[in-house]
Every structure is written in C-alpha cells, then in structure tokens.
Amino acid sequence: MIWPVVQAANKTVADYSQTVKTMICLSSREKPFKLTAKGTTQRHTGNQDYAEEIEEIYTAQDRQLVMGLPSAITPDTVYKYLQNIICKLTGRQSIKPSDDLYSIGLDSLQAIQLSKIVKTSVFSYNPRLNTEHLNVQQIYAEPTAEGLTNLLLGILDKTSGPITTVSRSNKIAQLIAKYTNDLHTWKSDILPQLPALFTVILTGCTGSLGNYILDDLLRNPQVTKVYCFNRSEDSPTRQKEGFQGKGLQTSPLVDPNKVVFLHVRFGEPHFGLSDRQYKELLDTVDVIIHNAWKVNFNHPVSSFEDPHLKGVRDSAIGAWKPSEEVTAVPEVPMDTAEAALEQGYGESKYIGESIRVEASKTAGVLTSILRVGQIAGPDTRLGVWNPHEWIPSLIKASKATGQVPSDLGGYPIDWVSVVRISPYLLLSNPPVMNLTD
C-alpha cells in the first residue's frame, strides 16, 4: 500500500509540506519518468509530461470542496456553511464557534483553500459583492468560525456599512489588561533573592533550544531538580531521542530525583495537574523558565492566547518563598506596543513580556526577560540546525530550484549558536537581556 508510506513521510515534515491523499496520482507505464545520467528524476521533464494529469488533480480538488452558500442567509446557516467547509478541510467531525481554527489544525494551505472556496461561493451567489475582505490575511485575522461568520455576513449584507475592526494597539492593550487585572499585590518594595540551591520548571524542553537548556540545568550543581512541562505524553521518549541526536548525556533523564516529566494543559486550573502534584510544585519550585512558544508569522495574536499567553499568566500565580536576603526591585524599561512587529507572533511576545513585567511590579514575581535574536544551529560536531527554520528551508528550496535569492533585505548577520544561549539563562541578572552574537 502506498498511503502508509506517505503517512510515514508526512510525519517528518511541517504541516504545510505534507501530501494529502487526494493530491496523489500514479505514473503510467506508457509515460515513464525520464532520468538524468546520475539516475535521478528529471523533474522539469516530468512536470511537462504529466501537465494534464497535474492540472486535473487540482481541478478535481477544487470541485470536491466547492460548496454553495445556503439559500437563506442567516447567522445560523452561514455558521453551519463555514463549519462544514472547515471540518472537510481539517478532517474534524465538528467545531465550536469560539474554537481557534489554527489550534485545532487548520494550516496555511487550508487557509488558502478556505479563502478560495468562500470567495468562489460569494461570487456565484452575487457577482457584484466585494470579496476583498475574504483574502487569506483576513481569514487569519478572524481565527474562529464565529468571527468568520460575522465577516461573511457583513459582506453578504449589501446594506451594511464598512467592516469595523478593533485597532491593533487596543487589541494588545485589552489582552494585557485581561491577564494582569487580577494579579495579587505584593506589599513590599523588595523582591526575594534566588536561593543557593533551587528547583526549576522548564517548558519547551524537547525543542531545539530546550534540549540544551535542560542539559545545562541537569549539569548545574545549584539545580536540585527540574520539572519538565510538556503538552505531549511521550515527552520522555522524545527527550531521550533529542539528547542522543545532539550528543548529550542521557543518563540523568532516568533519575526521578533529578528530573520529572509532567503532562500539563496550559490554560487549565493548576495546569491540569492533580492537587497533590500542584502542591508539590508550590512547595518546591523556585524558578520557571518559559521556553515554549508557537513560531508562526501568519497567525493573529488571538491565536497565541491559548495556551501561550494563558501559560505566561498562570506561571505568575505560584507561591514565592522569600529568603532572608533581598535586593531592590529592578527598573524595567517599558516599550510601547509599536515596538512589536505587526504580526501575531511579535505582538504575542510583547504581550507576554508586559504580563511578566506587571507581575514583577504588582505581584512581586522576580522576572528576567531574554530577547533572543536569530538562533543558529549548534557549533558542535553533533546536532543540526532545525530544518524547519527559515535559513535551512531557504537552502533546501534553493537547492531544489537551482536558484538563490539575489537579496535578503540587507539584514546584518547577527546570530547566536543554540549551544551558547542556554548558559546565559541562569547567569542572567538584568531584567531584560538581548542575546545575539
């Protein structure tokens, strides 16, 4: 069977690079692929030979997903119309009006398909209607079925005025206020100092940087124990594989006195842990290293709210155990929202920083913020640069096409090796640090 092989290959690439079953066509014995002298396929010739078959695959895909608008346009019928399309694209049985579409599996290619399907349906319904607001950017800006329903209703209602949106600065301010308004107040002008021996919670430990952070923590004599927070249940296996691939020592990973892997659900009370587990964390944890964040430059800031912004807020709730020595509360420079890039990823990082700064000022949660520049691959013999990041992806695309960009925009080469970042984490005293090479 071919499909199980394709499924196995799909697990090794990013979502947007995966092959779907409906986009597969078998070659014909009458038109065998032409090979180069090295025995590799002549891709350009193959594309020419199978041009009709390739065109038919895309045409059939469009026909399969085309869905006409309901005859009666109401909020309920339009919602069900969109729900059916989204469920077909994502393979889900149902979605809720407030579900974040990108959290439940809608990827960039499916967002393009969704935009194309809805545009085509609106044009068929009434060619005079303006479908400008149904572009992919607007689909990303409305990441729930409820939001898309309101967007589409506004377009279908010819008598409605211009579509109103909340300004970028107001949206950011609302999210910061949402996660800081109920912070407990710290009644002293001083913050406790980190004890000589301490226990750490680490998020994102199975990621490219997270592997090296965990390795440094386990080798640090001041760290008595590390609790690894993960949303996946197979994190111990993934962690061992990550360490092995980078040439890191795996023996500490099986010592329950040194490291504990916890399956958590950010945004839920007590991170979804039992009362006993949560009390153990409150009694023992001194430091939280929040190293997990979704890297996606298309998603709007609202798509980072759950679990990322909720996780930042929840990590500010724990009990801090004061020591006898104290230091003055550091001054933290506050930037305006305009300092964040106009994309959900950059805005969410700014909001996360603002939540932590407010937690430090109001609730007495000692905070250090590390703004890391471009993280390059390791400068050691073992380990590789994350193949899904933009430089490795650019190199692979250039190799496949036989072309390289003439210009990358004049950016300075300002990178730091993934191996060199983690030692700074436990040495960083400033409230804000920018790490580059």
UniProtKB/TrEMBL annotation:
Gene3D superfamilies: ACP-like (1.10.1200.10), NAD(P)-binding Rossmann-like Domain (3.40.50.720)
Domain Carrier: 81-115
Keyword Transferase (UniProt): no
Domain (Thioester reductase (TE)): residue spans on this chain: 202-313, 334-410
A Pfam short name: PP-binding
SUPFAM superfamilies reported in the protein's UniProt record: ACP-like, NAD(P)-binding Rossmann-fold domains
Protein name as it appears in the record: Carrier domain-containing protein
Source organism of this protein record: Aspergillus tubingensis (strain CBS 134.48)
